[in-house]
Design goal:
binds ligand EPZ, globular, four-stranded mixed beta sheet, alpha+beta, about 425 residues, UDP-n-acetylglucosamine1-carboxyvinyl-transferase, Chain, 2 domains, about 25% strand
């Protein structure tokens, strides 16, 4: 096990480069299974979630070679099996995208019910509804999801909840289906557009990704034989923007798509923080105590749930009482009890956190409960006086490439230390 030792209270200053988007990468990797040929994927984030996904694909028989830590070359003809009963799948939330891609290509698949961050119940009824509508039979037995179809036939599928995962899974399953599929009330996140762009580059016919209705005209085959570069990670970019603001810093976040961060940018400006867009960079500067805010997380283009814990840290040191409401997940406040150890004054009422801003946080020992909760605690440690130790780094390593090195380059005093 490892921990971070953070000597906080130092403003972050300088420039940071953003990597490829985790949530795009872990949707594009299973989409490789639909390609009957070769492809090259560039700007892959070098994070443990991606490395584990690549190992799963290799165990299924896909030939993948690393051309650099951020680029792979893929040769995919046929898989050895469509049963993905590896231990790795059980632990990875995104392993459920193998359902859509293997069902789409081979009309048969078995995947364990997925794990992932604990935000309360995480149903997959909308995924199953989509597969069933496409003519598949889906069963859940002993923790294994099985889906089979004689042939998949396009249809119109209305999602009862806006779900990123269900939108991606139905897209994957319908690309090679007979006829036309419409996904209505689809999620609009940038990584859904990125997945559709990848599939189109490989030979699919998808229109409308990024809007409420996605139209997928089934094609016979995805020949691939081309390269695709993954979009920058808007959550990583947002995490550095908040880290800059929380430490009273001055940071240029480079290689991002500012449009993807509009909801965060407008909130930061509302709180009195200077945010300037400069092409593919965002300059964040904070030289006074931020003001309180009222925020509710929503599907894109609303304020992202994946920025909610990091934002809570900034609101903890803002001037006044803020209300932060979680509108996507049943329970995403597991990090709050840890943040309280640093002196944050937060109480939870239903799905809202009522945050009374304090002037300073003070260092303590904290456990990272999940990926974004861990990132939030690291930001809190950077902003706090004295020393903070953050344990359970596996969570942040799943989603942030070279996190401590990037922070060190911005002047942070942070060390990764082995815990005996
Ligand atoms: C994705 O999860 C992301 N994960 C999450 O990011 C992110 O928080 C979430 O989208 C929302 O943006 C990955 O991409 C691997 P959903 P996903 O299906 O797809 C309900 C991170 O930190 N729902 O959009 O699992 C569900 O309970 C991770 O990087 C149903 O009711 O989320 C939730 O309330 C954590 N039935 C809401 O919809 C379903 O069949 C949104 O979930 C599916 C979902």
């Amino acid at each position: 096990m490892e921990k971070f030792i953070i000597n906080g209270g130092k403003p972050l200053k300088g420039e940071v480069n953003i990597c490829g988007a985790k949530n795009a990468a872990i949707a594009i990797l299973p989409a490789i299974l639909l390609v009957k040929g070769t492809c090259r994927i560039e700007n892959l984030p070098n994070i443990s979630d991606v490395k584990k996904y690549i190992e799963v694909l290799q165990e299924l028989g896909v030939k993948i070679t690393y051309e650099s830590p951020n680029e792979i070359f893929v040769e995919n003809t046929e898989v050895n099996s469509t049963k993905c009963l590896f231990e790795k799948c059980r632990k990875m939330r995104a392993s459920y995208y193998l359902l859509g891609s293997l069902l789409g290509r081979y009309k048969s698949v078995e995947v364990p019910f997925p794990g992932g961050c604990d935000f309360g119940t995480r149903p997959i009824d909308q995924h199953i509804k989509g597969f069933t509508a496409l003519n598949a039979q889906v069963t859940l037995e002993d923790g294994i999801i099985k889906a089979n179809a004689k042939k998949l036939v396009g249809t119109s599928i209305y999602l009862d909840v806006v779900s990123v995962g269900a939108t991606i899974n139905i897209l994957l399953a319908s690309v090679l289906a007979e006829g036309t599929t419409f996904i209505e009330n689809a999620a609009k996140e940038p990584h859904i557009v990125d997945l559709a762009n990848f599939l189109n580059a490989m030979g699919a016919n998808i229109k409308g990704a990024g809007t409420d209705t996605i139209k997928i005209q089934g094609v016979k085959e995805l020949p691939g034989n081309t390269a695709y570069s993954i979009i920058p990670d808007q959550i990583e970019a947002g995490t550095f923007m908040i880290a800059a603001a929380a430490t009273g810093g001055d940071v240029i976040v480079k290689n991002c798509i500012p449009k993807h961060l509009d909801s965060l940018t407008s909130k930061l400006i509302e709180m009195g923080i200077t945010v300037e867009e400069m092409g593919d960079s965002i300059h964040v500067k904070c030289d006074k105590r931020p003001q309180k805010a009222t925020i509710k997380t929503l599907p894109y283009p609303g304020f992202p749930t994946d920025m909610q814990p990091q934002m809570a840290v900034l609101l903890s040191i803002a001037n006044g009482t803020s209300i932060l409401t979680e509108g996507v997940w049943e329970n995403r406040f597991q990090y709050v009890s840890e943040l309280q150890k640093l002196g944050a004054n937060i109480r939870i009422e239903g799905r809202s956190a009522i945050i009374e801003g304090v002037k300073n946080l003070t260092g303590s020992f904290v456990n990272s409960p999940d990926l974004r909760g861990g990132a939030a605690l690291i930001i809190a440690g950077l902003a706090a006086k004295n020393v903070t130790e953050v344990y359970n780094l596996d969570h942040v390593d799943r989603g942030y490439e070279n996190f401590e090195q990037k922070l060190k380059n911005l002047g942070a005093k942070i060390e990764r230390v082995k815990v005996e």
